[in-house]
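Quick review question:
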């Protein structure tokens, strides 16, 4: 019960902070106020329905490790996140989110350390839990440092952020692959742990992707001061 409450609270806080980041990008949009209001309300509604929906499905054992529920949730979320990039407005919103926020929010990846706890409790195999858990914890611990380098305008900040994003994405792919090969770490991926692969993993992967796009295309609103690159709405539209 304690673990359920803890993960639910953490995921709720994370979802709220993710929305705050989206709101920052929405506020940067030019045009009519009503358009920004629609995106503000719509994004909040989607995030609430997403979190509550996945939590309820997980609580009712829909995401069984021996069924298609987990991969369907993963792939559906990723597909939706990437399809949104076809929208010019959404691309502009992503470009308007501060890059250090896209990086720093991944501090929540340390929640993946719960896999290590489950391993020491004997609930999950080490073949899956150790690389997946350690990778998550490392990504989460490095997030605030990379974000600080970016804000401080360190000359190596962009390169470090790109490498860090690639590492974080590779860790997620590795965790999913190991989870599939080991049957969820020996059947230990149950509620509420199952919220990690069905909700946390695709969310983190999308944020890594959005951050990487901004870094490579240099469309982030607050690029490193050393580069003095100013965010403009037109720059997001020109990189199609």
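Suggested answer, residue by residue:
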């Amino acid at each position: 019960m304690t673990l359920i409450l803890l993960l639910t609270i953490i995921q709720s806080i994370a979802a709220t902070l993710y929305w705050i980041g989206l709101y920052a990008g929405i506020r940067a949009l030019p045009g009519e106020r009503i358009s920004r209001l629609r995106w503000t309300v719509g994004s909040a509604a989607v995030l609430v329905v997403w979190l509550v929906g996945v939590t309820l499905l997980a609580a009712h054992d829909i995401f069984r490790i021996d069924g298609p529920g987990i991969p369907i949730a993963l792939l559906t979320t990723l597909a939706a996140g990437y399809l949104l990039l076809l929208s010019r407005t959404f691309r502009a919103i992503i470009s308007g989110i501060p890059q250090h926020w896209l990086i720093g929010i991944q501090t929540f990846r340390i929640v993946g350390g719960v896999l290590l706890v489950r391993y020491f409790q004997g609930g999950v195999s080490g073949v899956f839990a150790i690389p997946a858990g350690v990778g998550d914890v490392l990504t989460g611990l490095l997030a605030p440092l990379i974000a600080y380098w970016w804000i401080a305008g360190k000359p190596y900040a962009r390169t470090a952020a790109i490498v860090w994003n690639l590492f974080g994405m590779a860790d997620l792919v590795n965790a999913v692959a190991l989870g599939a090969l080991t049957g969820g770490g020996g059947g230990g991926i149950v509620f509420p742990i199952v919220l990690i692969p069905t909700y946390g993993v695709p969310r983190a992967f999308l944020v890594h992707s959005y951050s990487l796009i901004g870094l490579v295309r240099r469309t982030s609103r607050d690029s490193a001061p050393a580069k003095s690159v100013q965010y403009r709405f037109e720059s997001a539209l020109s990189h199609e």
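Why it works: The CA atoms of residues 85 and 91 lie 6 Å apart. Residues 223-240 have pLDDT under 50 and may be disordered.
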